[in-house]
Amino acid sequence: MTQDVHEQAREWIACGEDLAGAQQEWLQAHLQGCPSCHEYAEAAQHLVRSLRAVPIVADRSLVQSTQMRVRARARELRQRRERLVLVTLSCALVAVSSALTTEFVWRGFEWLGRWEQLSNPVWQVGFVLFWMAPTIAAGVLLLANGTHLSGNGASQG
User: Do the Cβ atoms of 40 and 47 come closer than 8 Å?
Assistant: First the structure.
């Protein structure tokens, strides 16, 4: 049982400053009463300080490659955000225009159905097809363009 307490203390020492308050308090209390764990903690702290003192220099080509990739990723995220804003605005505009014009288009189809002496189901089906046509056309165009696969809005080719 005592070995488990020491192993737990050493695991928490390895965590460093990433411990929760209760864990940190328990560890400090244990280190005050356990000389072997206290020595282990001091050795670990000394090792960390020694490692931090060693300068690490990256190769120039590695730095340039990393900077290039970070810039490319930032550009990609910016473009994605811009597209998302455009899609959101477009959807909002379509929703508002649909809400404002649905009743007028319905009445227009109803009037046209009476004028042509069509039964209610016939002009109602015509209304539904008319209302769905832009969505279907947009879906077909997006599928034909390949944007569903590329994820970036560019055509495949």
Answer: no
